[in-house]
Amino acid sequence: MLAKRIIPCLDVKDGRTVKGVNFVDLRDAGDPVELAWNYSQQGADELVFLDISATVEKRKTLVELVKAVARQINIPFTIGGGITEIADADALLNAGADKISINSAAVRNPALIDELAKAFGVQFVIVAVDTRVMGDKNIVHLNGGRLPTERQTLEWILEAESRGAGEILLTSMDHDGTKAGFDNGFLTQVNNAVNIPVIASGGAGSVQHFVDVFQQTNVDAALAASVFHYGEILIPDLKTILRENNIEVRV
Q: Hey, what's the torsion of the CAs at 189, 202, 34, 70, to 10 degrees?
């Protein structure tokens, strides 16, 4: 059995790590370079860096900041935000990214997934999906969750997989920042429907939530932000408890 991955996420705005609730009311959570070093030391399996305002502000990801973070860590590093073409991905790869995450640009131009997978390999391309329940359906949202689309989430995820996505990073906006637990029902549905790894995001508030998401959904990885940034959960402690619950993790 493959080991489950624990992934801290740095949501970066104006060069600082921030965290909100349901994608709004952002507050400062520290220096991304310092946090990245800390997570690498603590035993995080990977690190995700999302430039959360790049798409909205129609600009590219902060390449110099990415380089500074990459120098501090020795774990796989995923970058997202403002990637709209091969050249953007290439610049981030050269800056130290191991993988890139695309979201809004992929929904607007699905062929971008094919192009990136062909240019860099499937394992390089993570498709991030921000979903929110509207009526009785899970609907894809763009621009940092500001803009609902007409795409149903599961349908879009299956298309992304068919085009060459290597992993899906699925964030439940309804759960994001609430610390009330992951959206295990929908995560199970998605994980059962695809053949690529799924990263659960949105709602982690306790160690038990990580136990629950792995036991109930069998996703490959769980991502969180504020519980790690503010020291509420330490990664070594989390991994100890996961192992006690017979969940395979890397030591």
A: 30
Domain count, the chain: 1
66 lies in a domain? yes
Phi first, then psi, for residue 202 (nearest 5°) are 105, 105
Please give the Cα distance from 11 to 32 (Å, whole number). Answer: 9
| 197 CA to centre of own chain | 12
**Domain range spanning residue 131?**
5-244
Tokens 């509207």 appear where? Answer: 134
Among residues 224, 162, 227, the alpha carbon closest in space to that of 199 is found at 224
| Terminal Cα-to-Cα distance of the chain (whole angstroms) | 15
Residues designated as active site: 11, 130
Q: Each residue of 64-115: pLDDT tens digit?
A: 888 998 999 999 999 988 899 999 999 889 999 999 999 999 999 999 999 9
pLDDT tens string 172-208? 999 988 899 999 999 999 999 999 999 999 999 999 9
- Residue 110 within a domain: yes
Let me know if residue 216 belongs to a domain.
Answer: yes
